[in-house]
Amino acid sequence: MIALNLYFKLYAHNVPVNGGDRSAIYNLHAGTVVMISRVQYDVLKDTPHHTIEQLGLRYAPAQPELVYNYMQTLVSNDLGFLTKEPQRFPDVPVQWHLPAHLHIAVLDVNKKYYALQPVLRQLDQLLCKHLELRMHLDQFTQRQITGLLDYLNTAVFRSVSCITEYAPWISMEKLEEYHKNYGKLEHLLVYNAPEIAEKPSSSGIGWTSGGIDEWNDGPSSYKDKHVINMHYFMEAQQHNPYFNRRVYIDKWGNIRNSQSDGKVFGNVNDHVLSTVIRSSEFREKWLISPDKVPRAQRDPLRYAKVDDGQEQD
Amino acid sequence: MNKFINHPFLDEESLKSLPVTYRLIRQMNTADVGELYNGARYGSSRRHFSRQFMMQGPYKPLSEVLYQQYIQQPAMKKEDDETTDPLTVK
Fold first, then answer.
1. What is the pLDDT of residues A64-85, one digit of tens each?
2. In whole angstroms, what is the distance from residue A42 CA to residue A96 CA?
3. From which domain of life does this come (chain A) (predicted)?
4. pLDDT tens per residue across span B27-82
5. CB A55, CB A3: distance < 8 Å
6. Are residues A111 and A188 part of one domain?
7. Looking at the 3D structure of chain A, how many domains does it have?
8. Which residues of A fall within a CB distance of 8 Å from B90?
9. Is B64 in contact with A221 (Cβ distance < 8 A)?
10. CB of A37 within 8 Å of any CB in chain B?
11. CATH number at residue A248
């Protein structure tokens, strides 16, 4: 039997979120979500102020053992603990900071329309953390690719992913060599490639005879998909995590918010990237957090969904 | 989660000449200890004056191509099932 004179406290990494019909407890360490009812959410919000016995009398005076059993269930499932001093266990502060002007840059590389090196230098100056390059290797020689990787390996990026169409000079052996020698390469994916028997030795290397869509579900990729971790949750409190500090350069050099957004804010051949991303028009979508979106406000999973602006049925 | 390996890695002969506490040593796989950064990859960064700049992937999807590893299943348990909801007054 649970000790009724104690207070129940959720672990700090378990955060309750309210919704319309249902609520949820986000486990930001394990990356899971437990769905709960609205009443259970109200009880959880009251746990710092009342003992378990007081909660039972407050929320289920006719059958307080319902509340006691609920608390016991939460403790048994390792979602919280019992304490005499709940005030000694503060909640995780809701804040998100990023010491960079850009978080993610996705580039559709096309040498016919814009030069890659000046764009990479600008991204380096903006302290961009993660880079995805979509390339066509037949536009580059092996020497040029090596030079590019040499530059990227000393630039400010934390990770670089390359998704490229097959070219005759590329082989699995070459991919393995690049992946081994350049530590910043997180993913190296080749599509439209001939069938080969060798399997990649690393999970960061991909080789497929299919198209680029081999690794995703197409236009509705984010439907019913959820990202549950501390960083994403905190970012979602004030921002749209998908658009926030993201830039997309399409194959013509146009500067856009994302692949899914067609609005053009400039071109890398005519505009300085830092000027474009600092404009309020470009940043407008960064600040549209889930709480500001009418169709998301009642969804308890709003802080875990990837909202790329596409309608999700 | 208990990740300790329960079989002894020191044989009885060795243990005889060692202090008693050696019998209580527990073994873990290096890969399970995050602080050892086993398997971490490194580049460098001129701006950070670092030659051991650890590669760190993003915590959210870069694009629709490689989102799978960031995605979780939302509802691991259902607490609001009416038949088991402890707050449902029957």
1. 999 999 999 999 999 999 999 9
2. 26
3. Bacteria
4. 888 877 878 888 889 999 999 999 999 999 899 988 888 766 555 544 444 444 44
5. no
6. yes
7. 2
8. 63
9. yes
10. yes
11. 3.40.50
User: Is the pLDDT reported for residue A16 higher than 50?
Assistant: yes
The residue from A57, A88, A119 where one domain ends is A88
Judge contact between A80 and A8, C-beta under 8 A. yes
Are A127 and A262 in the same domain?
yes
CA distance B63 to chain A (A): 8
> Is A81 in the same domain as A117?
no
Q: Does B41 contact A at CB distance below 8 Å?
A: yes
Separation CA A123–CA B42 (nearest Å): 20
A98 contact B CB<8A: no
Q: Closest to B87 (Cβ–Cβ): which among A40, A215, A221?
A: A40
Instruction: Identify the CATH number of the domain in which residue A66 sits.
Output: 3.90.930.60
Kindly state whether residue A125 falls inside one of the protein's structural domains: yes
Shared domain for A157 and A269, answered yes or no, is yes
Same domain, A144 and A253: yes
| Number of Cα atoms under 13 Å in the Cβ half of residue A67 | 26
* CA of B2 vs chain A CAs: smallest distance (Å): 15
Kindly state whether residues A67 and A127 are assigned to the same domain. no
Cβ(A200)–Cβ(A184) below 8 Å: no
Where does a domain end: A88, A120, A136?
Answer: A88
Mutation target vs A (from B49, B62, B68, B69; most A CBs, 10 A cutoff) = B62
Contact state of A33 with B75 under an 8 Å Cβ cutoff? yes
> Does residue A238 sit within a domain?
no
Which pTM value belongs to this model?
0.85
Assess A76–B contact: CB distance below 8 Å, yes or no. Answer: no
Please report whether residue A303 resides in a domain.
no
Q: Do A135 and A24 have their domain in common?
A: no
Mean pLDDT on A129-152: 94
Same domain, A73 and A118: no
Residue ranges making up the domain that contains A203: 104-215+244-287
How many angstroms separate the CA of residue A186 from the nearest CA in chain B? 7
Give the residue among A202, A2, A260, A67 at the shortest CA–CA distance from B61: A260
Q: How many A×B Cβ pairs under 8 Å?
A: 158
Which residues 125-184 of A are in CB contact (within 8 Å) with B? 127, 129-130, 132, 152-156, 158-159, 161, 163, 182-184
A167-191: pLDDT as tens digits: 999 999 999 999 999 999 999 999 9
**Cα nearest neighbour of B90 on chain A:** A63
Burial class of residue A110, CB neighbours in 10 A (0-12, 13-18, 19+): middle
CB A68 within 8 A of CB A4: yes
